[in-house]
Amino acid sequence: MRVIRGRHNIRGQDQDCVITIGNFDGVHLGHQAILRKVKRVSEELACPSLLICFEPQPKEFFESFQAPARLTRFREKVKQLSLAGLDRLLCLQFNAKTRGMSVEDFIALLTEDLKVKALFVGDDFKFGADRQGDFEALTTAGAAHGFSVDNFSTLTHDSERISSTRIRGCLAAGDMPQAEIMLGRPYAISGRVVYGQQIGRTLGVPTANIQLHRYKAPLSGVYLVEVLGLNRRYPGVANVGVRPTVESGGVRPILEVHLLDFEGDLYGRQVEVVFIEKLREERKFSGLPALKTAIHNDIAQARRRFEQSS
């Protein structure tokens, strides 16, 4: 999959394409159904499939700290979109200039820069300055410029729409099985192992620290996990949170993982942490001795769970 960063990097090979537009946060089953439809039409027309997304996401630009937690960082989303068979990803920076883009300029992006052949968007899609553009405006543009405009149907689970918001709710509630069903895969976070305060070592429980590079995480607490990206899958225990026992006034969430029966250096390694089951909420303990006891209890519980599953 070719990632195009910015309108100025669009090339001839990216034109005459079938397009969809959206955040596609999580690339869940609903997104995957849209991508299959886009891919099928692009194959029928013998042209590339392309998704337009924005960074930061519009809600993050407008609401900053109040914006919902992301299910996937940009790098993770790229991976999932590639696995879904998308040919092109056009990432546009969302800033004051993008916010003020006129309806006419946005349509010019589609018709002149990308030479769109077919477009798939939700029937409630809005675009342009002050959200003045809508599905009807795109349909009118399609008739004028010779491209089709279709809305995508809603995919449901248990009679409810599959959405990133619903998945975030499942993760926040610790309902990993429901989140997995709607994602079409277990929920996972990828990242590079960085140096931390190495407090885990003083407690006899070394951890791999993974910076989440976000103000919010869609889940928090202590989890049974598996770690991928090494020589094999390693079971482990992970904590996602602000470490209230050792951090005073911590804001940014951190992912810490203790791999069971692992020896070696993980610093700088890119790993994927797959969340299997929530063990407990993160909490503030009276001190390091109480924290150490809780962590060793978590590890013992994790070992029992893995032994039962195997």
Helix content: 25-40%
Number of domains: 2
Q: What is the CATH superfamily of the largest domain?
A: HUPs
CATH fold-level assignment of the largest domain: Rossmann fold
Overall mean confidence score, pLDDT: 90
Strand order of the largest sheet: 1-4-3-2-5-6
Whole-angstrom Rg: 22 Å
Order of helices and strands: EEHEHHEHHEHEEEHHEHEEEEEH
What percentage of amino acids are in beta strands?
Answer: 15-25%
Largest sheet: 6 strands, parallel
Structural class: alpha/beta
The level 1 CATH classification of the largest domain is: Alpha Beta
Q: Give the overall silhouette.
A: elongated
Beta strand count: 14
**CATH architectural group of the largest domain:** 3-Layer(aba) Sandwich
- What is the count of helical runs? 10
Query: Which stretches of 5+ consecutive residues score pLDDT under 50?
Result: none
The N- and C-terminal alpha carbons lie at a distance of: 37 Å
Explain briefly what this protein structure is.
By secondary structure, the chain is α/β, with parallel strands linked by helices. The protein has helices at residues 29-44, 58-63, 74-83, 96-99, 103-113, 135-145, 164-172, 176-183, 199-202, 288-309; strands at 2-5, 18-21, 49-55, 88-93, 118-121, 148-151, 156-157, 160-161, 188-194, 208-211, 221-228, 234-241, 254-259, 270-280.
Topology (SSEs and partners):
Elements: E1 2-5, E2 18-21, H1 29-44, E3 49-55, H2 58-63, H3 74-83, E4 88-93, H4 96-99, H5 103-113, E5 118-121, H6 135-145, E6 148-151, E7 156-157, E8 160-161, H7 164-172, H8 176-183, E9 188-194, H9 199-202, E10 208-211, E11 221-228, E12 234-241, E13 254-259, E14 270-280, H10 288-309
Parallel strand pairs: 1-4, 2-3, 2-5, 3-4, 5-6
Antiparallel strand pairs: 7-8, 9-10, 9-14, 10-13, 11-12, 11-14, 12-13
Helix pairs in contact: 7-8
